[in-house]
Structure formats: structure tokens, C-alpha cells
Amino acid sequence: MISRFSVAMTTDVAERLTEHLERPDSQEDCTFVLWRPSTGSRRTTALLVDLVLPEDGDRIVRGTVDFTSEYFLRSAGLAAEHGCGLAFIHSHPRGRRWQRLNDIDYAAEESFAAQSLTITGLPLVGMTFAGADARYGARVWQRHAPRTYVPTEAENVRVVGDRFTVTFNDTLIPAPRATNLQLRTVSAWGLDTQKDLARLHVGVVGAGSVGMLIVEALARTGLQHLSLFDFDTVEHLNLDRLLHATDRDVRLHRAKVDIAARAARQSATGTDIRVAAYESSVVETDGFAAAADCDLLFSCVDRPWPRAALNLLAYAHLVPVVDGGISVDARGGRLRGAEWRAHIAAPGRACLECIGQYDPAHVPVERDGQLDDPSYITGLSEDHPLRRKENVFIFSANAAAAQLNQFLTMVAAPSGIADTGAHLHHLTTGTVDQRLEGCDSGCLYDDRLRALGDHTPVSVTGPHRAAEEARADRRLYAGRWSIRLRRLVADVLSYYR
Ligand SMILES: [Zn+2]
Ligand SMILES: [Zn+2]
To answer: DSSP code of 388?
Structure first.
């Protein structure tokens, strides 16, 4: 049984829906749509795949809209043939924002919920299109008892592509009150943008130097719901770059993700921030499922395997991924140059593989554990990206800022511009290269893998030895009573600080 539900679609699908549902005569209209499930750890998303538009005589438009049983059977049959579920969308031409189900629509959708489930094997998704601002409301019809179907309201409907537009169900996810602490923030982009930003469930994958800065920015900006992912333990050599990490954290063998979660709660300006800390990699089954629960992800990792997993989430599961990276040229022990990148993997935009952020050939190498094997690393050429570890706080701050700018542009679309392409910044020349075109021809991600959700034929998750060892190491350490006592004292001190 689905208890938390959401709907996601690409900009392409949204544009085709708008084109069909916005009638010049302002009458209501409708269409069937095929959907596939994307199952997270707590939330299930219906990914809209394709429209089954009505043909002449399929619908009966007179004030409210109705359709023939031939049209329903044809659509349901098509859904079953493609292993998809059936969604029904009708319009409220003068509606705005989230559309709730009224009595007439309830009875109409309830009448074919059972047949939809029988034919497709998946529950009926009902949606209402608000014609005045092209937003949606949605619900899923589940069987609670024989011949009893009950709608579960979605928490949001997401449109992903050049722009990221999310319509929230105000009943399930109420807009947070802007607080006095956010006066300057709200004056920069207005209350409506703040309400949409603050309610996004954002995941930050990797709580290293860049991830920690991004978490700080999101918490200060007033985001209410964060999921943080990292399996690493903080070490002394992280302290020159890791905001909020202290010498005491190193001595107490703290997980980086716990430091990030603690910092998010302390820096939050929102009224009640919810922070979940996952000591897992996004390539582990539970980490991947928890990442699929998010509306948007920040990628702050530097390995090929997690990047491949995030690339899959962006295209197959329609969770946009804001990615970045740093490369420092310090040949001969002198700073010769530095570059940092920021871009978003999402339908219509170039994927992480096409941008060159990871080499797919290295993914199986990392899965075998060879990238954690010193002899493999020393066998690579001196300037191999997997070998180069040079980094400083200043470049992390630049990369974090560039990623945050990409995020803000996509969500808030300043002056109506949401996509400024992938950016590559050069320190030595002070210039920025832009890539505006999408994936290279032949790339599978933004083509055949698009919106496949749970039906994706490639498996990207598996056991991750380094993550398992890091957790086991911390468990062993945390089991000692002297450490427990010292952690308790540290937590109490930080509470009263
Ligand atoms: Zn209606
Ligand atoms: Zn690609």
C-alpha cells in the first residue's frame, strides 16, 4: 500500500498536456496518460511517460467532461501492453495551484478505479490540471477492501527539465511561515518563491568540503526537509576544508554526515527543520531508495560509481541532480591553475557521463573495490583524475557557490531564465565555459532510460565494502564506554553553546 505519493513528469510531457488541456473555448477537457512507478524508501512516485490523447468521438464535452468506454479500454490496454499504469487527467480551466477532488470528480474516478487496477495491475492515478497557472493536483486510487477504492492524495507534482516546477499539496505539506530571521532572503525573491524553495525535499550526497557548505546554505535559506548521505568518518586531514568539523569530532570518530546534520539544525532559520542523516552510499540499496525519496539532489561526490547512480536517478527517476567538481593543477608542487564545474543532470540537459564527470569504464573497477586499493591507484598515471587529491577550502567554496547558483536558477528562474547550461570556471583566465546542448547522440540516459523508474534494466546498486568497513569501525569505537561518555559530554556542551 502506498502511503506517501508524488507525481513527476518531464517538461516535454507537461508541454504536451498543456497544449491539449488548454482549450480556446475554455471548456473542460481530459486525457489518459501512461505512468511507471519509481519506488523510494518511503515515497512512491508515478512517472508520467506518454499521453493517450482522445480521438474524435472519444469524449463528451458539455460543461464537465466525460469519455466513452472504448477510449478507456483502448488506453488501459495500451498501458498493460507497455507494463504501465493508467492515469486520468482532466482540467479545471479557471483553477489555480493544487486542485482537490470535488464530489463529482470523486465519483467519476472511483467508477473506473477497479477496472484500471484489474487491466494494468497498477492503481489508477487521478490528476486535475489547473488551467489558470498550469499546475496540477494528484491522487492514487488504492483498494482498501473488496470493491472499495480510496484516493490517497499526492504530496506534490513535479515538472523536471530546463526548469523545476513543483506544485505542493498545501494540506499535506503546508507552506512554512517565513520567520523574522529570513527578512533579507524573502526580500530577494518574494514569499511565493520562498514557499516553494522551503518545501523542497533536498538530498545532499557527500558531506565533504563542498557538501558541508551546501548544507549550510540550504539550512540558512530556510529549507525544511534535508536528507544527507555520507559513510565517511572525519579525519584530521579534513579539517582544513570541512566547515563545522572540530578536532574533538576527529577524536570522537564522528561520521561526517552527523556533523552535517548537527550543523543544519544549528544553522536552520526555518521553524521546524527535518534532517535525516544516512551513513550510506547512494550506491547501496537503502541509500539509493532514500535518495529516490528526494525532490532534488546535490551531488558532492568524487567517485564514478556514485555519480553513475546519481545519473540514473536524474533520468530514469526524474530527480534532478546538481553536480559539481574541482580540479587543481599543482604539478611540481606549485599552483598552476584550478577549475571547478557546476551543472544539472535532468531531462533535456547533458548527463554526467556526456559532460565527462565520470568514465563509465571506472564504475566496475570501483565496484570491485579496486579504487580503494593503493596499488591500483599508484599504477595510474600521475595526473589521472582518480589520483589527484589536491584541494583547498577556497576552491570548495567556489564549487559550492556555483552549484547553489545552478540550483537557484533552475528553481526560481530569475527574469524567466532557468537554464544557463553547464558551467566550467577557470581560475587562471577568470573565464567560464558554457555547454548548452543536451546529451551526446547515442547516450542512453536521456533517451531510452528516461522515466523508466523501477523498470530500469540496469542495476547500479550493490554492496560497498569501504562503506561497510567505515560503519563497522565506528560501531566498534562507539561501543567503548569511555567514548560514549565523552560523546555525551560533547553533545551536552554543544547543546548549551
Ligand atoms: Zn473536475
Ligand atoms: Zn548523456
So the answer is: -
